[in-house]
Write a structure and sequence with these properties.
The protein has a domain at 63-199: Vaccinia Virus protein VP39 (Rossmann fold, 3-Layer(aba) Sandwich). Helix content is 27%, strand content 27%. The chain is built from six helices and nine strands. Strands 5-4-3-6-7-8-9 form a seven-stranded mixed β-sheet. A two-stranded antiparallel sheet has the order 1-2. Helix 1 packs antiparallel against helix 2.
């Protein structure tokens, strides 16, 4: 029954615009039920966001698929993820790129995600407990940066950790209102922004820029 619901979800994502076969394959091969609370596992393959610990959520699969597809990943790339959460998005990324660096501010989520990465033998994920707004300067530059939490403005610190031809996907906007999913591309000294969709994410928790 689980396989049927997983395949149905992938078909729904395809019909909704997630057409990259490598992204769909990564989603199909990643057991979402391991990333949601036990009481909600019967909803794991519904196309909906679900609550997890620390007042956070595991994103709607369509949003995960869309954000991943818009990164245009390949197996040579390194990706910085801000907001590990349950670890589901990082697990998807790990199947599509060379290495994922992921940062989580909540210890409970960080430790639970580490256990899931080990259980799934996702050895190309490196996780850190800390302030995602600071990025991971010693591992920079990154080919891609992905925020799974909403920032009020494009974080300059994270932009500076992108390669000159790198790309960032992030939700922009405050909590309590619809935010905009944006793609930010560096082209030499220029920064090009593109709006992709309306989304709703929990806010980025960071001390960067607070004075």
């Amino acid at each position: 029954m689980l396989d049927v619901t997983r395949i149905r979800l992938v078909m729904d994502l395809r019909s909704a615009g997630v057409t990259d076969v490598t992204v769909l394959s990564a989603i199909e091969r990643t057991p979402r039920e391991l990333f949601v609370p036990e009481a909600l596992r019967d909803q794991a393959y519904e196309n909906t966001a679900l609550p997890i610990a620390c007042g956070q959520t595991i994103s709607q699969p369509l949003v995960v698929g869309t954000m991943t597809q818009e990164l245009h990943l390949n197996r040579r790339m390194t990706v910085l993820e801000i907001g590990t959460g349950s670890g589901y998005q990082a697990a998807i990324l790990a199947r599509l790129c060379r290495r994922v660096y992921t940062i989580e501010v909540h210890r409970v989520l960080y430790e639970d995600a580490l256990e899931r990465f080990r259980a799934l033998q996702l050895n190309n994920i490196t996780a850190r407990l800390g302030d995602g707004g600071k990025g991971w300067p010693e591992a920079a530059p990154f080919d891609r940066v992905l925020l799974t939490c909403a920032a009020e403005e494009i974080p300059q610190v994270l932009l500076d950790q992108l390669r000159p031809d790198g790309m960032m996907i992030l939700p922009l906007g405050g909590q309590g209102r619809v935010q905009e999913l944006m793609r930010v591309t560096r082209s030499g000294d220029k920064v090009v922004t593109e709006r992709l969709a309306d989304v709703r994410f929990v806010p980025l928790v960071s001390t960067v820029g607070t004075g």
